[in-house]
Amino acid sequence: MVPGVPTHLLVRTVHVLAMAGLVGGAGLVWLLGRHEDGSTLAIARSYEWLFWGGLGVLIVTGVGNLGAFGRGLPGPATTWGTVLSVKLGLVLVLLLGSAIRTLAVARAQSVNSPAHHRLHWSYAATTAVLLVIVALAEVLAHG
Amino acid sequence: MAERDSGAALLRLTFGTLHSAGLVTLLVLGIHLGGATGDLLAGVGTLPGIGVYAYLWVLTWWSAGRWLEAVDGSLIEASIPTDRAFVAGAQYGAATGGLFLAGVLVPVSAIAVTTTGLTVVLNLLVLAGLGLLAALLFGAAVGLVFTAVDLGVAALARRLVPGATDTP
User: Fold this and answer.
1) Predicted model pTM
2) Alpha-carbon distance A100 to A34, whole Å?
3) Chain B interface, best mutation among A14, A107, A120, by max B CB count within 10 A
4) pLDDT tens-place string over residues B18-47
5) Phi/psi of residue B101, nearest 5 degrees
6) Which end of chain B is more exposed for a tag (fewer CB within 10 A), N or C?
7) ipTM here
8) Burial call B19-51: b when 16+ CB within 10 Å, e when fewer
9) Please, is B3 exposed, middle or buried when counting C-beta atoms within 10 Å of its C-beta (0-12, 13-18, 19+)?
């Protein structure tokens, strides 16, 4: 894909950068939301665009990272395979929880709701889940 | 008006990505638990894999937008008629399944013509006809499942953020 750069390295770099954007963005919105400023909603909404675009990139590069193992990918009964199963399960939880969060943000702006504190905690939860996924990824990468 | 359009666009991206990412993650998890991930992924190159997922993502983005138009209501403001939602979900799910299969088969057939010959392609097209029926049915089933998920997600979002016109 890029002259001189192994494809699997490029895929992994994009994967890590996308994750950094998602984690940093969620953490930033959580910190900003502590002040219950109405302008945080606009920032949160911008983050939601970044989140779903970045998530699509994460999924395709994640599958690419697995593909780089080829037939050497450890099976589900191994410790590594179990960690991968947990990580994928957590990704599904993240997807569902984030869809609720995004629709809640859109609703908060649409109906001019004062429930900012609930959204603030949803970004705390998002940040926490993303950090756990990062920790699991570290285990998969380095044992 | 611009605000409402922007909100609709965000919902479209959300549901479209939820569907494609959720489906692929479920498939990979299922194949991994079956112990066949390495064999399957080893046969798919990086660029073709990215291309296939990008195509699926575009299709789910398109079908999510059509679904939102078909239900003709704002999920984030009030509940919508579920019968209309499920009919539209099955309809656009089937369309997504059929278009996905067609989109994958056309380049494969084009390559097959140049490398193997017309006879192989004709056999491939016969199988494709049967495959298309399966893709339509599978797509409709997936569409129904994701409609239930989307309605559930919207209901939880309305519960999380109360408003003046809240209808749980």
Assistant:
1) 0.89
2) 20
3) A107
4) 999 999 999 999 999 988 776 666 667 778
5) -60, -45
6) N
7) 0.90
8) bbbbbbbeebbebbbeeebbebbeeeebeebbe
9) exposed
